[in-house]
Please model this.
Amino acid sequence: MAEEEIQEHPELEMLRLNKASGYNYRKRREPDWKENYTLYRDKVTVNRLTQRQSVNIPMMKTVVRSLLKDVDDIPVLQFQNLDNDKEAEVFQNEYWKLIGDPDHNNFELQDIVDKKQVFLFGRTFDQWQIKDGTIKMTIQDPQDILISRYTDPTDIHTSRFLIHTNIFVPLAVLEKDPDYDKEAIARIKLWAGSTEGVVKIADNESMAVEKAKKMEDMGMDDVMEPALGETWIELALHFVYREENGEDEQLYLYTEAEDMEVLHKEKLEEVIGTTSDNFWRNHFPYCSWADDLERQDFWSDAIADIVRTPNKVLNSWFSQMVENRTLRNYNMNVYDSNLEDFNPQTYVPTPWGWYGVPGKPSEVYQQMQVNDLSESLDEMEFLIKMVEKATGAVATQQGAPVEKDITLGEVRLAWGEAQERIEGMSKFYTPAWKQRGTMFLKLIEAASDRLDVVKIYKKGRNTNEIFSREIGPKDWMTKAGYRVKVWNQDEKKAKDTETLQKLNALKAFMPFNPKVDEILKEKLTEFAGLTPEQTNEILEYERQQADMMTQPGMLSQTPGQPGQQPLPVPQGQTQLPAQV
Model:
């Protein structure tokens, strides 16, 4: 097909310009990201000057893993029904638990990958969609996302466009999709058979394998590597604000292939569905957060950026020490090459060997002096401590022993301050999980007809039997809807402890108030980490016991002895009046 016969999509050039603009805005970060990731993977680039030995001090991994172990608890999300329909609320929360379990989205694992990406790259993204009858949340590689340079760093939805690149799909799959332009796919097939297409498709296959392997390295152990021998086409999803046909501006979704064809174009609201507040007209199906926000730059710094340069310096020094030890172990010598019939290279070293030299040995050859570099260890220790102070990953968090002349109080103080710095990150990722909860609710509202019915299992209230029930969106959707309540687990524990202390003080002041007693017991069951079912069983038993105490035939409580429980009257005995 001649080039002049191909009619380009009229908006393809606009998509290309957006992609170039987003890439130019992000590309300054890519060299740093690559170094951060390779150092984390214990890989170094050998050169002839500073890194002559392939050795790496695992400082990057030590810092990231030390910090990750203290922040890897996923926040708690709860959906509260605004119509006070408690049964619907239970079903809604059970559905959230179901899609977050390891058999579906595995939120626990994805949360760890999410935080690790923030540590290494400074920014992370997740994508939400309805696929195969259920809601899917996937943590995406920051190197696959492009946004406008004028985006508010605190709100990704202020970007004029969002482009998800590096989506590799087999050509056979594209041909089966009824929504894609068949003529455009036919032109891609012709291009795939050309010399240029063969080279590009080979690159696509390599990149697809590399992406899958990288996500496995980040912790996603269920990523499938692409099958070899297929024709892989690179797609990009363009979410762009457009104003067409006299309608208000809203988001459109373009599916573009290999920078040469637009396979599909549609309003995002029509792709996902309609909500009462037209949510999908101005919200991308993506969330993003960072822990070092800046007003001027969406692509903020990462903790790994602090570690990168000191890690490279340590690697250089350590490489020199390794080579220094090797050279000293060689025991190299120099000799007078003007002497005749003297060729020391032919001498074979043997135990207790004797070797003749023409003249006084000290005048014929001399051992080459290689200076010891062990004094560099003090400088290396200084760099390591500097990184620990900058990142908060102190030695006690890493499980390393502390110096003997430091008191236990000083150790606890240093550890506590480091812990507070790490827990401060919850101010950034906890709101991100609230946004995810909102995405979850809006997907259900917009496309409830595309969600499959699921089966949940619950234990009976007063029995150990397990009961099952099938539920769908109609079982939990109500007119007013839901609001998302989210809290960090560490913050919740601290708040619960404070609340219990106040309730105990109130109980001491009002020992006979049944409402205070009921609230205190409810808070105690929550603090103990019991499930809602266990809490209901315990509180129901307490209410039954309280009702029994008020029945006739029970001993009344003796005045002047607050807190004493009334005792049941034995059968055959008459209840006696209280002694005065």
User: Anything to note?
Assistant: The radius of gyration is 34 Å. DSSP finds 18 helices and 14 strands in the chain. The CA atoms of residues 291 and 427 lie 8 Å apart.
